[in-house]
Amino acid sequence: MTHQDPQGQSKEGAKPEESQQKAEELKREEPKADETPPKASPLPDPAEELKNALARAMADLQNFKRRSEEDRGRTVRFANMDLLKALLPVLNNLQRSADHLPQELKADEWAKGVMGVHSDMQKILEKLGLKKIPTIGEALNPQMHEALMSGPGKKDRIVEEFEAGYTYHGEVISPAKVKVGDGTQGNKTD
């Protein structure tokens, strides 16, 4: 015989009505024979996971190769830029020599040989990406031209080049040193 306390509970601690309610709730939660139990999420296919991982690894490898090639190209370009900057004074001196060669020496074979070396050097450097900055008659561009003087001529137009300037793959490595027009008329107008 179970002993009941004043609230009507058995000594085990549960009312008979509560036990019956719990049993009914459990029956409701159990799937019926005609009901399909809720499906658990399907386990991923190991072959599909490996295939996706391989595709990601291949894409990462291609991106790494592309970035490595770009970095290598930049490194070579910058190394060449340093070499070109070192050669520019020599190139400019050869140009000055050609510009100031006395008339009586222009037919001299030795002078022709030196001018031929100068011409060959310019062609090789152009093939490597060195380009001379246009000057005479151009509008002054502070990114590409260094104005050393001003004088008669069209306002802000280059009227004389003192030293050639160069770009290397589109980047200015040496600005052209020029004289610009100040807007007054003189014997040099462009």
Task: Please sum up the structure shown.
The protein has helices at residues 16-29, 46-99, 109-127; strands at residues 130-132, 145-151, 158-163, 166-168, 171-174, 176-181. With 190 residues, it is an alpha+beta fold. The strands form two sheets. It has a three-stranded antiparallel β-sheet with strand order 1-4-5.
* Level-2 CATH architecture of the domain at 62-181: Roll
**General form:** elongated
Strand count, sense and closure of the main sheet? 3 strands, antiparallel
Helix coverage percent: 40-55%
CATH-wise, what's the superfamily of the domain at 62-181? Head domain of nucleotide exchange factor GrpE
Question: Which CATH class of the domain at 62-181 applies here?
Answer: Mainly Beta
The fraction of residues in strands falls at 15-25%
> What separation lies between the terminal Cα atoms?
125 Å
Strand order of the largest sheet: 1-4-5
Which spans of ≥5 residues are poorly predicted at pLDDT below 50?
A: none
How many alpha or pi helices? 3
Alpha-beta classification:
alpha+beta
Elements, N to C (H/E): HHHEEEEEE
| CATH fold title of the domain at 62-181 | Nucleotide Exchange Factor Grpe, Chain A, domain 2
Task: Determine Rg (CA atoms, Å).
Answer: 44 Å
